[in-house]
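Continuing from the previous page of notes. For each protein in this section, the sequence appears first, followed by its structure tokens. Read the first protein now.
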Amino acid sequence: MKYKRILLKLSGEALMGEQQYGIDSNRLLQYAQEIKDVAALGVEVAVVIGGGNIFRGVQAEQVGLDRVQGDYMGMLATVINSMALQSALEKLGVYTRLLSGINIQQVCEPYIRRRAVRHLEKGRVVIFGAGTGNPYFTTDSAASLRAIEIEADVVLKGTRVDGIYSADPEKDPDAIFYRNISFKDVFEKGLNVMDMTAFTLCKENDLPIIVFDMNTAGNLQRLVKGEQIGTLVSMDDLGETLKETIDQIQPGSKSDKK
């Protein structure tokens, strides 16, 4: 295996599937099966899920709520998604542990780094809920922080797109697809990979990020085996970009865009 221990970041919106709100059971089971297949290979898997399908903290101020209160509401949304994924994984026979950044002892363990690492070493899938446990920090930041703490080999950001582009490829037919790109180039080009705090954490700790299409069956497994899927962001300036226009890309490679 190319990667022994991974941190998989999933967005809450991805769990909606074709719905406008909430959790799509088919999408949830699809993700659970993908994670099970990777864990069966002996890869240690940790997961962070967003809560945007239920509530985002930044929405709070728009409806007159206190931002800090809204962020805690968003953390609870991530716990709901984490509980759903845990249930789906256990339905497939996968041992899991849900660790929360805020204390909710009735449904999950408190986050303790050594305990999380021990669970991973025992082959359990570890889900980190409630972000960092602090307001003003996104789940992207939580993913980067937890990945660094557990000494993951890579952050895999599963999205609905097949990698990083210079622009929206659905609007710009000359959008450039980056197969490999350095942290430095992402900063200079102003590309939207993660929020700046999360991205800087990865850069300063030399933790690579791979952005890939999680909705394509088997992509996660191919990634951990070493196939070049999606876009790799690393310290190395590999200078390798693929300028692929929409008509040059294989049919179906961008069939599931935002």
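Done with the first. The second protein uses the same format. Note its length before scrolling.
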Amino acid sequence: MQPMYYFKQALDDIRGAKVLHGLAISTITLIFLLTGVFALVFINVSQLMTAQQDNVRMMVYLKSGLTAPELGPIQQAIEKTNRVKSAEFVSKDQALERLRQSMNNQAGLLDDLSDNPLPDAFEVVASPGEGGWQGVKMTAATIQKISGVDEVNFGQAWLEKFSMVAELSRAAAIAIGFLLMVAALSITANTIRLVLYNRRDEIKIMELVGATNGFIRASFYIQGMIQGLLGGLAALGLLALVFFIIVAGAPAQELLGRFEFQFIPIKYCILGLLLSVGVGAAGCHLSFAQFTKD
């Protein structure tokens, strides 16, 4: 019977201060919505990094003057290199034709060339696996040592910058998420503290007649947990709405090939809701600590 009494008392307090609790829940919703946005960015950046690592393309440029019989051993050596999945020969004429096609209307600029300046090359597909980008570098360094290879290019500068941005975004998401949780905790604590001060005379009377701390505090803890839960549910609903209506159908998806944006996994959604409830309970605990001091 007592749990129902606590829950009813908590709902009565919320109804009695609708504006106050409404503002608190709205603010918590905004905070958890921002946290969800950072979580989405973190998840999709990590997924994109993984997708990019699955099939890394390298261009292995060959030294000039190599004969056809010399190309076979080079290709075999490349294919035997650790992490290499395939190696396809691209002649200098094929490379020039690809360049011409990629230039579209500006392809006429290539007509004035007296000689083909492009080298023969092998287009290599590698899978770094658990080695990550460090494994890609090791594979490139091994191929570079093969006789007849002039240069290995796999967008090193771009990949290093992308990795750095991914690490910075991960660190920023964690730091900002922590600050947002602290803000949500403070808002919940302040809201419950105001309710406590409004009912301080009633609380004093309950203490005088022998009511236990658990009996007095239970409904307030439930209020904080309800605030957190409603804020978390509203934030999750808004985030899902924005994601599935706007992000999932964005043209940017076509620019990323087969990569598909991922929503927050269900286990992390549940964890987020539990966290929001926990923040509500912790905020109530802080408000009681301050109320007791006063």
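What the second structure shows: The chain has a mean pLDDT of 79. Residues 55-127 form a domain with the Alpha-Beta Plaits fold (CATH 3.30.70.3040). We return to this in next week's lecture.
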